[in-house]
Amino acid sequence: MILLRVALLVCVLATSAFCAALARAQAPGSIDAAGCAFYAPAGADPRSIIASPPPPCTKALEKPEGRVSFVLFGGLSATARPGDPLEFSHRQARSDFERIYFRYADGVVLQSPTARDEAVRPMAPNDLYFAVPYRPVPLTEILVQATGFENRLGLAKRARLETRSTNLGYEAGHHLAYGLFGGAIIAMLAYNLLLWWALRYRFILFYCLVGLAMVMFGVFWSGLIRLAIPGLSVNQQIAGNFLSLSLIIAAVPLFLFAFVESNTIPRWLRRVTLAAASIAVIASLLRLLPGAAQRATIDLATYLGLLATMAMIVACVGFALANRSRAVRYFIIAWTIPLGFAAFRTLWGIGAIAADGPLMDVSPFAVMALEMVLSAMGIAARIRTIRDERDDAQAMRAMLQHLADTDPLTGLLNRRAFLEQAHDREGDQRLILIDIDRFKTVNDRFGHEAGDWVLVEIARLLRTNTPEAALVGRLGGEEFAILLPVDGSPDRLGETLILTIAYAPMPIRSKITASAGEASGSSLSEAEWRALYNSADAALYAAKADGRNCLRRDVASVAA
User: Fold this and answer.
1) Which of 138, 167, 293, 413 could form a disulfide with 473 if both were Cys (CB 3.0 to 4.6 A apart)?
2) Is the CATH number of domain 182-394 1.10.12?
3) Which CATH architecture does the domain made up of 415-559 adopt?
4) What SUPFAM superfamilies does this protein's entry cite (predicted)?
5) Do residues 373 and 8 make contact, with C-beta atoms less than 8 angstroms apart?
6) Domain residue ranges of the chain, discontinuous segments joined by +
7) What residues are paired with 131 via a beta bridge?
8) What is residue 131's three-state secondary structure?
């Protein structure tokens, strides 16, 4: 619970850092985000285009063969300081090639020295930063040139022109937020891994897979992957984002199926859900292939696979609720926001929803960190429920075992339980068989209910007057048995018990006596027990023949 509280505190601090970064992001610097998008032949000179009036703008840019996509931002007036150069940034988009050109007030056109794959900065996700060559005159126009452009959201979206110091300050807020959110996610993942190592519940292991996929998503999304793979292209990083997101969505149903009670989600629905998740994962893997053909089809398959998987997860939750699952309520609390956010981003990715801004950059981490904290609480509650169910089952099993081993009238061991425990005793044992004298007369004279009272009272006397190490049982009818080790047990216990019964007040107006037979030997095997019992039984018959109300020992046992 301490770790959960720390994680919650980290989430609060990360949210504060994110708000600070968001406030900086709202500072002046955004330029016409729509720009003027148009096409030009592949051999067109960008410097001539930027110096001439642009052709009519188009709303959608695709990837037509033999043409190049352009976006022109005009009407600017920005002058850089020598020690704090300007930077042009915009949202990442998948394309084969990209160049940025700048036109100044004196008509000079210069190209950005920053290559596209060098424009990505770790911990500044989804944005490309291009250096603006310094000139002492104002910057008036920016031209973005892209070949092989593919993105439903548009080219050079969220375009900004800021000084380097402003961008670094903006990134610092992201760094703090990512560090805190990432720390919370990794801490909760470590917590769950240790929990699985200790408890070995399958649903904890599957949730660890979810956590690993989240860490993978964070590494790709934030750009940290570039520290490990410096030559990674922008397109490969985008494909990694999709793959990690698909792995998260694919691991969630595995966790759900193991987390809820068995038989609350139909098997056919589980198979359909996993099939939909497989489509998303396979399509995401295809995106990683260099030069993959039919990329638009692959994108559509990825998006549809993600949406179908999330729809199937909702259906699984509905079936679990209908089947009165208690555990699914914890899942709903932890996963409603993340699944809703994932659906929102998927619809945003296919252009069905219009949204943009810094919130779209940091919010995945905030949602994942919140989900992991809530899921940890749900997992703890589920473990507590399983523990309570296990304790109840063990108590029920112990009660049933007690009922199966106990004579219902006297509370002593019954014949079966007495024999089972007798076979587990090593070393020589002393067996005392006690039989109530003329018990049939008691039943005939006073009734069977009175006879039961007598049996209960004698059982109490035997239980309270024998050592703790002794087995005391009712073998049937009015016959009782006591088994205890020869070493350390009273030599005249049998005589003491006979006298105790003879002088004890009984629940009927009649004196009750008993006879006993005693023998010693091993009781481990069935043959040894049978020999020991026969010897004690023979001694009991001898006591009956000698007038009852006495104890006789087996001759062989006495000689030994």
Assistant:
1) 413
2) no
3) 2-Layer Sandwich (3.30)
4) Nucleotide cyclase
5) yes
6) 31-158, 182-394, 415-559
7) 87
8) strand
